[in-house]
Write a structure and sequence with these properties.
- The complex is a heterodimer.
- Helices cover 57% and strands 11% of the residues of chain A.
- By secondary structure, chain A is mainly alpha-helical.
- Chain A has 2 domains: 40 residues; 101 residues, no CATH class.
- In chain A, strand 2 and strand 3 form a beta hairpin.
- In chain A, helix 3 packs antiparallel against helix 6.
- The model of chain A has no long low-confidence stretch (mean pLDDT 84).
- Chain B is mostly helical.
- Chain B starts with a helix and ends in an 11-residue tail after the last helix.
- Classes of the chains: A mainly alpha, B mainly alpha.
């Protein structure tokens, strides 16, 4: 039997171990030696087991633009939550559900993931299927589906990823 | 501070009740899952913010914030998985009948 060693980037392994260790300390909230050493061993093991993927590591400017995108997303979530509350509590239940597909111009897989996740996070719209950059979306109401088709969210996400090399 | 946290928790409870009413009133899987997503976007997060305010500055507040972040990452995944499974199983979405 031949044991093959995968190539693991040490810097990335270290970062992952540190992130997991911070999570460990946060949850255990104790600074005894036994717990700390056990935490290091466990987070190293988990990071090693998960080192097979070659994930997308965003650069700092992507993180910064993402942070500026978040408040807008929360505003959007609040707005459509109130819209949905109004729809549900309305005596006549004036809903008009619709399944439609959107072809986005995003050309980065992380951008498509962020787009789909933002759509699902906004109440009233859910991403049902993703195929490269075609998304099938279910919306509860005409106003909500027009919100997606107005491409406002998509252009904001395209701005976050505008300097990355396309990989889709 | 206690007053503020009570306001947040009551607002969260209101949205949780609206979501429960929505699950009962709406017609099919697809539209019901919208009502469920209202739970995690506003209901649960407002309650968690209220609890964090109630707790003040301590390790428990940090834990609550971690739960909040995980909620926002994980819930879209679950909603998407449910809806995709329904779509692939061939469930027909309910549509408003045009007169």
């Amino acid at each position: 039997m031949v044991i093959k060693f995968r190539k693991v980037s040490l810097g990335f392994l270290f970062l992952k171990t540190m992130a997991l260790f911070v999570f460990w300390v946060l949850l255990s909230a104790s600074f005894e030696w036994v717990h700390l050493v056990l935490g290091v061993i466990c987070s190293l093991a988990v990071a090693w087991l998960n080192s097979g993927h070659s994930p997308f590591v965003p650069k700092l400017r992507v993180w910064l633009r993402f942070l500026f995108y978040l408040p807008w997303l929360f505003y959007k979530i609040f707005q459509s939550s109130f819209h949905l509350t109004k729809l549900i509590l309305h005596p006549a239940l004036p809903i008009d559900p619709k399944l439609f597909s959107v072809k986005s111009k995003l050309n980065h897989h992380a951008a498509v993931v962020l787009f789909g996740n933002s759509i699902t996070l906004t109440p009233g719209t859910i991403t049902a299927e993703v195929d490269r950059n075609n998304l099938i979306i279910h919306a509860l109401d005409k106003a909500l589906s027009e919100d997606i088709e107005s491409k406002e969210m998509e252009s904001k996400i395209a701005y976050i990823f505008k300097d990355e090399t396309p990989d889709l | 501070m206690i007053m503020l946290s009570i306001i947040f928790i009551v607002a969260g409870l209101f949205f949780l009740i609206v979501a429960a009413v929505g699950v009962i009133r709406l017609p099919d899987v697809f539209s019901r899952s919208h009502a469920v997503s209202l739970t995690d976007s506003l209901g649960a997060s407002l309650m968690l913010v209220g609890l964090a305010l109630h707790e003040g500055l301590s390790i428990n507040t940090l834990k609550i914030l971690v739960v909040l972040a995980l909620l926002y990452i994980l819930n879209p995944v679950i909603a998407h998985a449910t809806i995709r499974a329904a779509l692939r199983a061939g469930v027909k979405p309910w549509e408003k009948e045009t007169p």
